[in-house]
Amino acid sequence: MDLPLPFIAEAQRLVLSQRLSQATALIQERLGARPASGASAAGFDGLTIELSAGPAAGTQPAPPPPGAGLRSRPRFAFAQGAATPLRPVAAEVDIPAGAQLLRLEHDGPFGRRSFRLYVPAAVGEGPRPLVVMLHGCTQSPEDFAAGTRMNALAEEFGFLVAYPEQPRAANPSLCWNWFDPAHQRGGAGEPAILAGIVADIARDHPVDPDRIFAAGLSAGGAMAAVLGSTRADLFAAVGIHSGLPRGSADSVAAALSVMRSGRSARGEAGAPEVPAIIFHGTRDTTVHPANGDRLAGLGTIGRHANDRVIQGSANGRAFVRSVRAADGTAPARELWRVEGLGHAWSGGDAQGSYADPAGPDASREMLRFFLEHPRRSEPGAPSVSPASPAP
Questions:
Q1: Where are the alpha helices (DSSP H) in 17-123?
Q2: For residue 235, which of 266, 274, 263 has the smallest C-alpha distance?
Q3: In whole angstroms, what is the distance from residue 4 CA to residue 274 CA?
Q4: Among residues 199, 203, 194, which one has the least CA distance to residue 170?
Q5: Residues in Cβ contact with 32 at an 8 Å cutoff, skipping those fewer than 6 apart
Q6: Model-level pTM greater than 0.70?
Q7: Start-to-end Cα distance in the chain
Q8: pLDDT of 284-313, one tens digit each?
Q9: What structural domains does the chain harbor?
Q10: Helices and strands: H and E segment counts in the chain
Q11: What gap in Å lies between CA 151 and CA 153, rounded to an integer?
Q12: What is the 3-state composition of the chain as percent helix, strand, coil, each rounded to the nearest 5?
């Protein structure tokens, strides 16, 4: 569904004026609150939209170094004065000889989703790790694969990569519905669909049940946070890039507010229950960097004996890496704040949208973190199950 320029510009103006209820009403009036006819009955009835909401309040990011400019495509073209929204360019995914990028479909009790599965050419011994990659709004699995270069790492380390696809029938902007309470529980909605995709893959491929991980960007990062908070029985660790905590919003208006301010009125929002590595750019004006701080739960960093703060630079960008090891009561955390990075995957490939070649390689660092934190299986526990006891 195309989003007309006057509608988007007016919605942004209302959001920036703190008139969120009016912005929500305008969105619902112009787009409607239900999917188009013929959409799946399991599709979400609402909608979401990601807007650049101006500079993040309370941050004074350092300017990017020369030659390290952001090379991501904007979500909407109104900021550049174009007449129609820009669409992501279809990215080509290079497949080496012997590897496969399968197009598959999950059809389960909670809904249907297409997904891509990358099977590396490298032959591994025994069960393989599985990384579930959740794209951001307006993106496709191929686009996300190109921007993150996760398939190249799969060849290097011999793991499987799944790229679930959000259809327009479920969300007009192809966003995962992280802000809707119907999709914030492990045993229902999109989290249950994603768990079903994992079960499908494990049925047909040798998957290590203790090394199943999820990572995502923006709305996909927020959904990864949901999985890390509700499916600790399935996912060993999660990677969240430019995302938001589970439960930080329960409506379109609340989503727009927390994206802009980093503050949520919902007290239950917070860090995932499994080990988590979080990346966020200091110049992100779409999702406020404070959301990354809340995801990491490192407000008291430096007060524990095992806390570490590492400053460095990579590919032309400075970063601050805050690390807290698991202490028996809380899982391990890593927060990477990348100076000068906007709303884009750090160290990514500009062939994909919302990917910035400058900065530390988020894909490689996430994989390193994942492999350091396998799930500790309980004796007699089922290996991979789409069902969840989590509320």
A1: 20-31
A2: 274
A3: 41
A4: 194
A5: none
A6: yes
A7: 34
A8: 999 999 999 999 987 654 456 678 999 999
A9: 100-372 (3.40.50.1820)
A10: 9, 12
A11: 5
A12: 25, 20, 55
